[in-house]
DNA sequence: CTCGCGATCTGCT
DNA sequence: GCAGATCGCGAGG
């Protein structure tokens, strides 16, 4: 009943569509035999050179180079010098699109996640926010560029969770006020009512 | 609950 | 030099 997303899934050329399709899918990591899994409940789409909020807006750098790879690899970067943020690279070769995963609903390995986050018990903050979920899932620069469809280390599964269009809400992306009119694009998507949604400040302009 | 702030690294200006 | 796709803490309501 659970199917690892194939390489083809990530080659779709509409990153906004992929951001919506990833809601309800399950992100899994196996780090030194410790399995953790969580349902993706919040995403943001970032689309290539023309998107003023996308890291690829100023071309290819050491940090962004993996965004130019064909879809299906991980783009992980350090934000504010502290937090690792996890993105799914999409689109075909040379088109630097990515989906930022902003929140998960924990499903498996709760004890491992709590230990990594140094938390005594489960609350909605365990995997609410991109930096938090990366810490809970042990995602860091070791995952940079790693393939997401091999079923090893890190991958994404379809477990048949159905997310109908009326359950998907959209808003502008978080923390991208510097992006001019692109800050208003409604490219943040989340599952309505899920308690693990992050509470970041929305940047309208 | 909300607000303000410090931590700490990358890459552009 | 500085701002950034953030978080957790303490103080105040």
TrEMBL record:
Q: Name one Pfam family in it.
A: Pur_DNA_glyco
Q: What is its EC number?
A: 3.2.2.-
Keyword DNA damage in record: yes
Keywords per UniProt: DNA damage, DNA repair, Hydrolase
Q: Which domain of life is it from?
A: Bacteria
Known InterPro entries for this protein?
Formyl_transferase-like_C_sf, MPG, MPG_sf
Q: Name the CDD domains for this protein.
A: AAG
Kindly give the Gene3D superfamilies that the UniProt entry links to this protein.
Answer: Methylpurine-DNA glycosylase (MPG) (3.10.300.10)
Indicate yes or no for the key word Nucleotidyltransferase: no
Q: Which PANTHER family match?
A: DNA-3-METHYLADENINE GLYCOSYLASE
UniProt family annotation: Belongs to the DNA glycosylase MPG family.
- This chain belongs to the protein called Putative 3-methyladenine DNA glycosylase
């Amino acid at each position: 009943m659970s199917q690892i997303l194939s390489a083809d899934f990530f080659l779709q050329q509409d990153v906004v569509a992929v951001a919506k399709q990833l809601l309800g899918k399950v992100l899994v990591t196996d780090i030194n035999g410790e399995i953790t899994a969580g349902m993706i409940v919040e995403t943001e789409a970032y689309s290539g050179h023309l998107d003023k909020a996308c890291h690829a807006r100023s071309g290819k750098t050491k940090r962004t180079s993996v965004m130019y790879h064909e879809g299906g690899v991980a783009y992980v970067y350090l934000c504010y010098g502290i937090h690792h943020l996890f993105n799914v690279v999409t689109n075909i070769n040379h088109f630097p699109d990515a989906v930022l995963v902003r929140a998960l609903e924990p499903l498996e390995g709760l004890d491992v996640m709590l230990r990594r986050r140094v938390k005594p018990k489960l609350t909605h903050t365990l995997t609410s926010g991109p930096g938090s979920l990366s810490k809970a899932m042990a995602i860091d620069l070791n995952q940079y560029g790693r393939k997401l469809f091999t079923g090893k280390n890190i991958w994404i599964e379809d477990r048949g969770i159905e997310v109908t269009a009326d359950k998907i809400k959209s808003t502008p992306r978080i923390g991208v006020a510097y992006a001019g009119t692109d800050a208003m694009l409604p490219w943040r998507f989340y599952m309505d009512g899920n308690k693990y949604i992050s509470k970041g400040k929305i940047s309208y302009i």
